[in-house]
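Supplementary notes for students who missed Thursday's class. We covered one full example, reproduced here. Read the sequence, then the structure, then the short commentary at the end.
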Amino acid sequence: MNAHTQRIKTVKTITIKNEVHKKLLAVKRKDESFSELLERLAEGMNSLETLTKLRGRVEFKEKEKMLSELYALRTERRL
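Structure (token representation):
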């Protein structure tokens, strides 16, 4: 490539449910595009930050069962 060659960016259109869009908006930063958000999420966002931003926005099915399993795993790790 020479100095005068332009870099062409490929653009993709994706379709997501309204519920997913709302969840993405909840974790999107003010100065961030959706492409930047998706890139950040794909690269691995800080788990604590993700959980903090999703608190109260996500419904868990079988919440008590999930918590019991988490507590059991924590106990196993500590042994």
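Commentary. The chain has one domain: 18-78. The two ends are 58 Å apart (CA to CA). If anything here is unclear, bring it to office hours.
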